[in-house]
Structures are given as C-alpha cells and as structure tokens.
Amino acid sequence: MRSPRFAPGQSERELIESAFVEVDDIISYHDIVAAEKMALQKGMNFGVGRKYSVFLMSVRENAPYADAIDPVTGMLTYEGHDVKRGLGIRHPKKLDQPLTTPKGSWTENGKFFRAAKDYASGLREKPELVKVYEKISRGIWSYKGFFELLDAKIVSDGKRNVFKFSLKPVEKKAFNRIVELPHNRLIPTAVKMEVWKRDRGQCVQCGSTKNLHFDHDIPFSLGGSSLTAANVRLLCAKHNLQKSDKILCVAPWLFASLTAVSHVQKHAG
Ligand SMILES: [Zn+2]
Fold it and tell me: Separation of 210 CA from ligand 1 center, angstroms?
C-alpha cells in the first residue's frame, strides 16, 4: 500500500524511501537502478546497499539459473552464477561455478558463500540481508522484499558443481528491525506471471500502465489468498491508494486520536 502513513519513529525521509518501491510493486529495470542508485550489471551483488546485498532472480522458463521458492516454507533457493564467458571460455554451463576469480579474489559466489557459511557456523552474528527483485517478463520486474541468507552448499547438477543459497523471507521495519514474514503472503511468481498476462499489464480499473502493483483483491490481512490468480490483480498507485483508504475507513492516526478522545470522554463521564 502506498498511503502516506508514518510508522512510529519513522522519519519523513525514510517514509519517502519506503514509499518508493514496495513489495509486489511492478517496476522497470530503470526503477531498480534508481532505487539502488547504481547499475546492477549482474544478478548477484554482494554488499551494494548500505546494509544489504541484491539478488536479481527469475523462475521463468528458459531462465539461466534454477532459482526456486518453496511454496510451503517460502524459502528461496538461489543458484550461484557461472564463469563469465570470455577468452577461452565458450561454454560456461559446462564448468563448475567458480568460488574465486583466476586472479584469486572472491567471485560473487564466493562472497555470498563465505557470508552464508560464517552465519551457519556462528562466526557471524547476523545473516546477510538480501533484497530480491524478480523478473516477470521482458523489461518487467517485481520487488520481492528482503531475505536472510541462512546457508549455502555446493551441489552437483549431474554435470558440474553449482552453488545453492538458502534464504528466508523477512520484513524490514523502521530502525532496521527485522521480523518474520508470513511466507504465504508472498505472491508466487507463477501467479504474478498469470495475472500480468490476464490483466494485460494494465490497471484493471483505469487501464494505466504506470506505477502498477500486484494487489490482493481480498487483503492478506483479512484472509485473502496469495496463491491463486483469482485473488490477485493489477492496480495503479491511485487505485491501490483508494482501495486501502476504503478498507481502513479512517486513517490510523485519526483512529488513534479518536480512540484517545473516547478514552478521555469515558473517564471524564
Ligand atoms: Zn488505475
């Protein structure tokens, strides 16, 4: 939801930043670059944010890597990345995914692998936070939220060794507080792709193609499901805002002051 509401202790600046991209917003690659204030040239970007890393993921057919989200646990399994194609390397998919570069520095695989293993073994107190964007269609991305990097392993896919990173969905609150995220609130990518196609990339109310968001028809907080396209639709920012106003009826700060007033009146009476 995009309604301008302050969480306790949230500064105006934080509010503006958090209003910029929200989970399940539909954005272009250009929006991602604007949000991260840098061009993300690759899928794995260790430590690029002030306190987090960034993964670009895709579960589409023909996606270059086997990323997957477990529909039961919400855990993300993110595959490591191949050797760069280049001099003498024509078939990266035939080679083991590299931990280090030919010069001996860590690859992105290596940096994430080390962070995951340090956390899993207790060397590191807090897990690496990873912001995830997923590709829905050509040039169309959706912000998937924050995940914690819990562990990693190297597995054989039958032909070569690849990295598998395990990440848990979390919610980042004001003051960098991290809380558990009910995993079934995540809209699976397959559902998003179906909705995107069905609604033809437009707000279902006005046909706008700008500032779109995957919206739960019946809100998740009221028991609406994320797992079926029937309860998910495309709404522009304006119609998303109108809808959230209707559901809340009164703005929370107004509600809080009304409660305070009735409380005072009760005690006065
Ligand atoms: Zn609209």
Answer: 9
Q: Which domains does the chain have, with CATH numbers?
A: 11-86+94-186 (2.30.280.10), 189-269 (3.40.1800)
CA 206 distance to own-chain centroid: 26
CA of 30 relative to ligand 1 center, distance in Å: 22
Residue 12 has pLDDT above 50, yes or no: no
Q: Amino acid identity of 86?
A: G
pLDDT single digits (tens) 231-258: 999 999 899 888 766 654 444 444 444 4
Burial-class residue 10 by CB neighbours within 10 Å (0-12, 13-18, 19+): middle
Look at residues 219, 213, 253, 268 and name the one whose alpha carbon lies nearest to residue 236: 213
Spatial separation of the C-alpha atoms in residues 219 and 161, rounded to whole Å: 42
CA separation for the pair 191, 230 (Å, rounded): 9
Q: Which residues contact 41 (CB under 8 A, 6 or more apart)?
A: none
Residue 217 CA to ligand 1 centre (angstroms): 14
Residue 3's pLDDT band (boundaries 50, 70, 90)? very low
- CA 214 to CA 103: how far, in whole Å? 44
